[in-house]
UniProtKB/TrEMBL annotation, chain A:
WD repeat residues: 21-62, 63-104, 105-146
GO CC entries: catalytic step 2 spliceosome; cytoplasm
Quaternary context: Interacts with EGLN3/PHD3. Interacts with ERK signaling proteins MAP2K1/MEK1, MAP2K2/MEK2, LAMTOR3, ARAF/Raf-1, MAPK1/ERK2 and MAPK3/ERK1. Identified in the spliceosome C complex. Interacts with PARD6B and CRB3. Interacts strongly with GTP-bound RRAGA but not with inactive GDP-bound. Interacts with p62/SQSTM1.
Protein family: Belongs to the WD repeat MORG1 family.
InterPro entries, sorted: WD40/YVTN_repeat-like_dom_sf, WD40_PAC1, WD40_repeat_CS, WD40_repeat_dom_sf, WD40_rpt, WD_repeat_MORG1
PROSITE patterns, per the entry: WD_REPEATS_1, WD_REPEATS_2, WD_REPEATS_REGION
SMART domains: WD40 (SM00320)
Subcellular localization, as worded in the UniProt entry: Cytoplasm
Main location: cytoplasm
Keywords linked to the UniProt accession: Cytoplasm, Repeat, WD repeat
The protein, known as: WD repeat domain-containing protein 83
Family matches, as Pfam families: WD40 (PF00400)
A Gene Ontology biological process term: inflammatory response to wounding
UniProtKB/TrEMBL annotation, chain B:
Naturally occurring in which organism (per UniProt): Panthera pardus (Leopard)
InterPro entries documented for this protein: DUF1604 (IPR011666), G_patch_dom (IPR000467)
Acidic residues composition bias: residue spans: 1-12, 769-780
Origin superkingdom: Eukaryota
Name by which UniProt lists this protein: G patch domain-containing protein 1 isoform X1
Compositional bias annotation for Polar residues: 468-481, 735-744, 793-803
Length: 315, 932
């Protein structure tokens, strides 16, 4: 529907603001698309987690139960449950429909920076500033984690999961990739504290952003540097980065209130999208479409490509 | 005959039921067999003649625990939901209804219970009740009970009656009784003070009947003692106002159950008014009912002679029957009468003491001294210090007290144990008065030390000020007396010197340390010239002065720091005996290498560390991934035990770890740190620099495993090598780095020296330090063999013998992990740094040729670089093969390593070295077997 023309078009960058969600939950710490990109989660500093339809701007549900600000959230593959972690050191598993807390995993010694479901939503991986990643089992009732990955020497800032890998960025300047299939741990030294890591959509590369205002694209298998992207400002905050829906562009938040787009191959700055005053704290890219969510302050903006026209019913 | 017959027929008595006459042609009935002779109850059920409640033993269903339905309880009721409904089963729940019928063992018919039946069946209890009622605050409250008493009598009561007993009589054989004479009516209560006894003549007349000789009497009824507890606040023996007396005026006699025996108290109500003629009514009672009295008796004019006894009376016969519960008048009649004369009335239930109370002994007050003045004045209190001893003495003398012996404490300073000591008591074991005595010896010492430390601090402050004063007054330190005096004062506190003795502030200068210790010893002895004595006389005056200062400062400093520290730290709760710690076997390499690599954007092998990592089984299951190490039990990174305080843990430090003085280290520090040496230079940095394009990290680990041991024990060597490194780093030329390296190796001492130093370590352990010398074709062959062998043997999985364990089992990662770990342990004790996970293979391979290395040394022609490269190749192949053994290996991994191999290796050696493992194995097999 989105691309009716048979002729392949060049990639379009989302630069048209189509919606602004005034979240009303304090600062929005993170904004995350769900698995199919129809909904999004916003993590507020007022201890709530909200589920939205970002294109229509409707609030669907508010999940409250955290004891402190929510720092990250993720949705399961079947949209049936959510997980979130926050400053209360707890990882919470939510039931989407009822809004109830299903499980509350306690065990981290510090704030939980990042949470992820695994592919089948049977395990929640949470990274905390206590320099450990804990794998919580959603199936059993046991309160302690299945495994604790405590190889990091400093806080974990980012965790991403593929079907058999766990990618973790740590403030100690290393990106660790735990390969469950091979039973090996690959540790890539970047030097500067890592703020965000992510896999490319083809699973061959990892994108790493660090506090030296640089994004690096590393080959997953060898750790070699494939590209470096600079121009934005990221020296203080844990900012998100990601790749566009077809791995054509590298997208990163910046502390100067813009979102930067680089061409992945050339490494040239493609677009600096001014989002708003202040730091762009978080962003999330739609899994299939050129649609971007950015969080600045207490509001979330939804961006689409220029040619986008809001469709009436389909959303 | 017929008549006779008929008569006799009529006379016959027939018993039982006649059998029915047999009909014609019918065979006589068979008797009912035994098994058919059953008895059934009215409901048709078989009747059991035995049962749990009828004397027999037949439990449950045909003597089983089951029921007709089977061996299941009739109904299960969850006690969780209806906890409250749970009822306790009684015996009735297991009874048949026949048992509960009128003639069963537990009849349920309505019967009169004892509460209603027992009121009158027991005369004795009745009497007691009456007694209680009479003494109750509202007398006569039991009247209603008496009126509505049911008529049932107990069986014992009826039996007694049938035996001739009458109500009111006692039980027992009838007795003869003497006529009573002059018995005063005991029923008369005397209120107020001492009335003359025997004031009731009327009653005398009544009792004075003629009693024939042959008449016997029933024994007197026994009145039970009233054990009703006193639950009111009335005085003892208080009785409320008798309504009879109050209402009918002249009833002078309380009805007294004790009074008449069978005759007296039989009819309570009927006696009202009988004693109307009595004189003494209630006169004398505290509260009058005068309005109701018919006449006022002149109570003072009733003195008659008949009120007095004229003869001594003896006891009533048969009174011995009564025992201690006897009514009062039988027990202490005369005594009470006698006593009443001067003591007064004895309360009910009390008797006069038989023994007179021993009178209290009184003592006269002490005689006052002659010059006693009843005025107190306070003397000034002067604390006994050294200055005012005289004053105190004078004061105490003036006070008339002897001067307390300074050795002994005053009375108030003594504690119990000291007093006991003074008194010569044997000390009580175990129960000491001071908490301190419960403390262990160690703790006591600690407390004492702390106390001394605080004392010392004060002393030191004082001393310091003194010293400052002294030094300011005399700036020239050549006058030693002042300084030493002050220091002496500071240190004379006691244990400072002893404790300072195990602190060696001048360890780097043994001579000086010796002098310092001497100084401390002198100080301890309290010699004033301690400093002067121990100083080296050959030194100049300035030096001596400086050293004096140093010593004194060191002594002070140590003590103070010791005291402050000791007050802050406690002893470890757990003994830290195990000097081994668990550390990950593979640690991320030095960041310094990587930092430079990152700076140069040399991402890839330089910045990557690869570890063996064991995911949890459950995690694998949840990720739908097969467990990469199915036989492994460990989770996470493999861990090994390491010496906690091993020298080799600090090998990255530039100086040797043996020098304890940090001062020395700081002095050494700047010496060999080059201009851009913010990062610690090391030998392997060189090699990294020189082969940047190569797989340097692997090479680094290899190089580390080789050159580790020599760097440990000889710091000059290390420094020297590091200087080489510095050089090579500065110009970054590959060739020079190689030169310097070979040069450094050339200057190394021989292997025997290392062996001598590490005497305890076996050959096998030191092999890692030697393997770099053993490079040759033979070497390669040997390792190949070992490798081949091991791969074969791992298949057979036979890992028992010790000799085997020393062989390359270690390359097998998971299954034989304990052995591997042990072995690594041993190597850790020697080797400088843990190799990466793929490294042990190589090291193991190179163990075999160690014995021939001396020969091989000479044959060394090729450059170091070539050897290394070859080894690297081997290692890669091995790694590859190793991976191939694992089930879940990633196919592209091996190919990538192959590709890197080919890309990495220079052109010259590629043809010879870059072989497939199969090819290599084939070649190795063809080689002659040289050593095992």
């Amino acid at each position: 529907m989105a691309f009716p023309e048979p002729k392949p078009r060049g990639p379009e960058l989302p630069q048209k603001r189509v919606k602004t969600l005034d979240c009303g939950q304090g600062a929005v710490r993170a904004v995350r698309f769900n698995v199919d990109g129809n909904y999004c989660l916003t993590c507020g500093s007022d201890k709530t987690l909200k589920l939205w339809n970002p294109l229509r701007g409707t609030l669907l549900r508010t999940y409250s139960g955290h004891g402190y600000e929510v720092l990250d959230a993720a949705g399961s593959f079947d949209n049936s449950s959510l997980c979130s972690g926050g400053g209360d050191k707890a990882v919470v598993l939510w039931d989407v429909a009822s809004g109830q807390v299903v499980r509350k995993f306690r065990g981290h010694a510090g704030k939980v920076n990042t949470v992820q479901f695994n592919e089948e939503a049977t395990v929640i991986l949470s990274g905390s500033i206590d320099s450990s990643i804990r794998c919580w089992d959603c199936r059993s009732r046991r309160p302690e984690p299945v495994q604790t990955l405590d190889e990091a020497r400093d806080g974990i800032s980012s965790v991403k999961v593929s079907d058999h890998e766990i990618l973790a960025g740590s403030v100690d300047g290393r990106v660790r990739r735990y390969d469950l299939r091979m039973g090996q741990l690959f540790s890539d030294y970047v030097g500067s504290p890592i703020t965000c890591t992510c896999f490319s959509r083809d699973g061959q590369c990892t994108l790493v952003s660090s506090l030296d205002s640089t994004l690096r694209l590393l080959d997953k298998d060898t750790g070699e540097l494939l590209g470096e992207y600079t121009g934005h400002k990221n020296q203080e905050y844990k900012l998100d980065c990601c790749l566009s829906e077809r791995d054509t562009h590298v997208v990163s938040c910046s502390e100067d209130g813009k979102v930067y787009f680089w061409d992945l191959v050339e490494g040239a700055l493609a677009l600096a999208l001014p989002v708003g005053p202040g730091v762009v704290q978080s962003l999330s890219y739609h899994p299939q479409e050129p649609c971007l969510l950015t969080a600045v302050g207490g509001s979330v903006h939804c961006w689409r490509e220029e040619a986008y026209e809001a469709e009436g019913g389909t959303g | 005959m017929a008549a006779l017959d008929s008569d006799s027929e009529e006379d016959l008595v027939s018993y039982g039921t006649g059998l029915e006459p047999l009909e014609e042609g019918e065979r006589p009935k068979k008797p009912i067999p035994l098994q058919d002779q059953t008895v059934r109850d009215e409901k048709g059920r078989y009747k059991r003649f035995h049962g749990a409640f009828s004397g027999g033993f037949s439990a449950g269903y045909f003597n089983t625990v089951g029921s007709k339905e089977g061996w299941t309880p009739s109904s299960f009721v969850s006690s969780r939901q209806n906890r409250a409904d749970k009822s306790v089963l009684g015996p009735e729940d297991f009874m048949d209804e026949e048992d509960l019928s009128e003639f069963g063992i537990a009849p349920k018919a309505i019967v009169t219970t004892d509460d209603f039946a027992s009121k009158t069946k027991d005369r004795i209890r009745e009497k007691a009740r009456q007694l209680a009622a009479a003494t109750a605050p509202i007398p006569g409250a039991t009247l209603l009970d008496d009126l509505i008493t049911p008529a049932k009598l107990s069986i014992g009561f009826e039996l007694l009656r049938k035996m001739g007993w009458k109500e009111g009589q006692g039980i027992g054989p009838r007795v003869k009784r003497r006529p009573r004479r002059q018995k005063p009516d005991p029923g008369v209560k005397i209120y107020g003070c001492a009335l003359p006894p025997g004031g009731s003549e009327g009653s005398e007349d009544e009792d004075d009947d003629y009693v024939p000789e042959n008449v016997t009497f029933a024994p007197k009824d026994i009145t039970p003692v009233d054990f009703t507890p006193k639950d009111n606040v009335h005085g003892l023996a208080y009785k409320g106002l008798d309504p009879h007396q109050a209402l009918f005026g002249t009833a002078g006699e309380h009805f007294n159950l004790f009074s008449g025996g069978p005759e007296g108290a039989s009819d309570l109500l009927g006696e009202i008014g009988v004693n109307k003629g009595r004189k003494l009514g209630i006169s004398g009672q505290a509260f009058g009912v005068g309005a109701l009295e018919e006449e006022d008796d002149d109570i003072y004019a009733t003195e008659t002679l008949s009120k007095y006894d004229t003869i001594l009376k003896d006891e009533e016969p048969g009174d011995g029957l009564y025992g201690w519960t006897a009514p009062r008048q039988y027990k202490s009649q005369k005594e009470s009468e006698k006593d009443l004369r001067y003591i007064g009335k004895i309360l009910d239930g009390f008797s006069l003491a038989s023994k007179p109370l021993s009178s209290k002994k009184t003592y006269p007050p002490p005689e006052l001294p002659r010059d006693y003045r009843p005025v107190h004045y306070f003397r000034p209190v002067v604390a006994a210090t050294s200055e005012n001893t005289h004053l105190v003495q004078v004061l105490s003398e003036s006070a008339g007290k002897p001067m307390p012996d300074p050795g002994t404490h005053s009375r108030h300073q003594l504690n119990a144990s000291k007093r006991a000591e003074l008194l010569g008591e044997t000390p009580i074991q175990g129960s000491s008065t001071s908490v301190l005595e419960f403390l262990s010896q160690k703790d006591k010492e600690r407390i004492r030390e702390m106390k001394q430390a605080t004392d010392l601090k004060a002393a030191q402050l004082k001393a310091r000020s003194l010293a400052q004063k002294a030094s300011s007054s005399r700036p020239q330190p050549s006058s030693p007396d002042v300084g030493s005096c002050s220091w002496h004062m500071a240190l004379s506190g006691g244990t400072a010197a002893t404790r300072a003795s195990n602190f060696k502030p001048f360890a780097k200068d043994p001579e000086k340390q010796k002098r310092y210790e001497e100084f401390l010893v002198h100080m301890k002895r309290g010699q004033k010239d301690a400093l002067e004595r121990c100083l080296d006389p050959s030194m100049t005056e300035w030096e001596r002065g400086r050293e004096r200062d140093e010593f004194a400062r060191a002594a002070l400093l140590y003590v103070s720091s010791h005291s402050t520290l000791s007050s802050r730290f406690t002893h470890a709760k757990e003994e830290d005996d195990s000097d081994q710690v668990e550390v990950p076997r593979d640690q991320e390499n030095d960041v310094n290498d990587k930092q430079s690599a990152v700076r140069m954007k040399m991402f890839g092998k330089l910045t990557r560390d690869t570890f063996e990592w064991h995911p949890d089984k459950l995690l694998c299951k949840r990720f739908n991934v097969p467990d990469p190490y199915p036989d492994s039990t460990l989770v996470g990174l493999p861990r090994v035990k390491r010496d906690k305080y091993s020298v080799f843990n600090f090998l990255t430090l530039p100086e040797t770890a043996s020098s304890p003085a940090t001062q020395a280290a700081s002095e050494k520090g700047p010496q060999h740190q080059g201009p851009d040496k913010s990062r610690k230079p090391s030998r392997w940095d060189t090699s990294k620099q020189e082969k940047k394009e190569d797989s340097i990290s692997e090479f680094l680990s290899l190089a580390r495993s080789k050159v580790g041991p020599p760097t440990q024990e000889s710091s000059p060597l290390v420094i020297k090598e590091e200087e080489h490194v510095t050089e090579s780093l500065s110009d970054k030329s590959v060739s020079k780095g190689v030169d310097s390296q070979t040069e450094g190796e050339g200057s190394r001492p021989s292997m025997d020296l290392f062996k001598a130093i590490f005497a305890s370590s076996s050959d096998e352990k030191s092999s890692s330090s030697e393997d770099e010398q053993g490079d040759s074709e033979d070497d390669q062959a040997g390792t190949g063999e070992a490798d081949f062998k091991s791969s074969q043997e791992t298949d057979s999985a036979e890992t028992s013998s010790v000799a085997r364990a020393s062989e390359p089992v270690a390359q097998e990662p998971a299954p034989s992990f304990p052995i591997q770990k042990m072995q690594i342990d041993e190597r850790e004790a020697f080797g400088p740094r843990l190799p990466p996970v793929f490294c042990p293979n190589v090291r193991q391979k190179l163990e075999a040729p160690q014995k021939e290395k001396h020969k091989k040394n000479k044959e060394k022609h090729k450059t170091k670089k070539e050897h290394r490269r070859r080894k690297e190749k081997k290692k890669k192949h091995r790694k590859h093969k190793h991976k191939g053994k694992q089930k879940n290996k990633k196919p592209e991994k091996s190919s990538s390593s192959e590709s890197t191999d080919s890309s990495d290796s220079p052109s010259g050696e590629e043809g010879t070295v870059d072989l497939s493992p199969q090819e290599l194995l084939r070649r190795l097999k063809s080689l002659p077997l040289r050593r095992q």
